[in-house]
């Protein structure tokens, strides 16, 4: 009989792969977050990934689409809410002024939060609109 952890790992892996195969660096531990986020130079995008339907149908496809824009982040990271709990909690410490939200996208510059696209801006929105929120942020903060 398969353990719960092994089952969840199998179920979650394609959701991880959707971002990592598009160049996202997965931060799985608090230490990896502490090493990456405050030291990242230039514009960084941090995806707070999630298993929810709006992550699958909207957030991940929109963020991947946003990378086709002329202006792109210098660094692209992801943490997985509900899976890599310590990494996600540590990442959220850098998102000052924003309530925990998943899925969500943090736009950071030189390790400092600039803005976030939160779950309420993702749910029930069009994929192109969500990608537009991201590309506008890239243009604004680059």
Descriptive overview:
This is BrxA/BrxB family bacilliredoxin. Belongs to the bacilliredoxin family. InterPro entries: BrxB/BrxA. By secondary structure, the chain is α/β, with parallel strands linked by helices. The chain has one domain: Glutaredoxin (3-Layer(aba) Sandwich), CATH 3.40.30.10. Helices cover 46% and strands 19% of the residues. The protein is built from six helices and five strands. Strands 1-3-2-4-5 form a five-stranded mixed beta sheet, with helices on both faces. Helix 2 packs parallel to helix 4 and helix 3 packs across helix 6.
Name a few traits of the molecule.
single chain; 142 residues; alpha/beta; Glutaredoxin; five-stranded mixed sheet; 6 helices; 5 strands
Strand content: 15-25%
Total beta strand runs: 5
Which homologous superfamily in CATH is the superfamily? Glutaredoxin
Order of helices and strands: HEHEHEHEEHH
Spans of at least 5 consecutive residues whose pLDDT stays below 50 are none
| Average residue pLDDT | 96
Q: Determine the number of helices (DSSP H or I, runs of at least 4 residues).
A: 6
CATH level 3 topology: Glutaredoxin
Q: What is the terminal separation in angstroms? A: 50 Å
What global shape is seen? globular
Structural class: alpha/beta
Radius of gyration equals 14 Å
Instruction: Tell me what the CATH architecture is.
Output: 3-Layer(aba) Sandwich
CATH class: Alpha Beta
Describe the sheet with the most strands.
Answer: 5 strands, mixed
Number of domains: 1
Helix content: 40-55%
**For the largest beta sheet, what order do the strands appear in spatially?**
1-3-2-4-5
InterPro entries: BrxB/BrxA
Pfam families: Disulph_isomer
Family: Belongs to the bacilliredoxin family.
Organism: Brevibacillus fortis
